[in-house]
Amino acid sequence: MRCEEESFSAAKDSYRFSRWILILGIILLIAKVCAWYITSSVAIMTDALESIVNVTAGAVGLYALYLSSKPPDKTHPFGHGGAESISSSIEGLMMCVAGGMMIMEAVRNMIYPSPINNLDIGLALIIVAAVANYLIGRTAISKGQKNHSPALVASGHHLKTDTYTSAGIIIGLLAIMAANDMGYSVLWMDGAVAMIFATIVLYTGTKVVKTSMDAIMSKADLEVLERVVETLSRDRHDDWIDVHDIRVMKQGSIFHIDMHVTFPREMTVEDQSREIAEVVSAIRREFNNEVDLMLMGDPCSEEFCAICGRDCSIREHEFEGRIKWTVENQMLKGKEDGE
């Protein structure tokens, strides 16, 4: 119960922060559209277009965080955390679409350059927007990692990408201003700058989609599995003969972990329950109670005698040594079972 309460508290914290991201996104979008209107720069247009994606994705992410903050119910017994992965995949797809549109407009402008006006005012607006995006993006990533919120982390990376795009556009437009002051016509550079950073947006969007789809399809998280195996090895009791069939799935801020632990046949139900509680306690300490653990206790058979050092009246083979648990042999067992 404590695990679920802390998880929902983290989800609500992410939801509250996401509201501020959406509000900031709307303000910065207005500033960039004004800068585009003032300058007619296609590079600034690409920046404004990405901000439209930011605002739309921010609204989708906000709704996803609202859903993930809701506790499990009869129709969603594992909670609503999966909404975050769906949200981040939508955000990544929108970034890919925006990047494609930016590239097409950049190519058109390189072929048919259009004049740029009032760059000084436009640049001032873009600089302010870039600084604000970087600060809020960095904070979003930090808070998202703390709360195990993929939607908030995706939003943070998107905002930081927007910052880098803005920084490159600022440098490019400064170069155009300098060239104009020296009497050179380099309007084609406006489209070239837009092309470079549209490609960055497209690449980042592709990465966000891949990460989100891995989460939706419950791809094995080797880092989390390694933490589970290391924790069990570190806190191992003599009566924990073997661990097998470890499965890890992440939904929102909760890790769902299933595993089987082999206990001695002579162990009473009461003793086994106590050992199961010790296993659960060790895992929850490692994951700060942000874990839903399903553990099955299995009785040993003669094949385990070689790795069990217990003084047992029904021993059929000599003890040879305890098995060392690793990520590799846990994954191997899954493959042998046809997983």
Write a structural description:
- With about 350 residues, the chain is mostly helical.
- It has helices spanning about 1-40, 40-70, 80-110, 120-145, 150-180, 190-215, 220-235, 270-285, 325-335; strands at about 240-250, 255-265, 290-300.
- It has nine helices and three strands, in the order H-H-H-H-H-H-H-E-E-H-E-H.
- Strands 1-2-3 form a three-stranded mixed beta sheet.
- Helix 1 packs antiparallel against helix 2 (about 40-70), helix 1 runs antiparallel to helix 4 and helix 2 packs antiparallel against helix 3 (about 80-110).
- The longest helix has about 40 residues, at about 1-40.
- It starts with a helix and ends with a helix.
Helix content: 55-70%
Structural class: mainly alpha
Count of helical segments?
Answer: 9
Strand order of the largest sheet: 1-2-3
Number of strands: 3
Summed up, what is this model?
The chain is mostly helical. Helix content is 66%, strand content 9%.
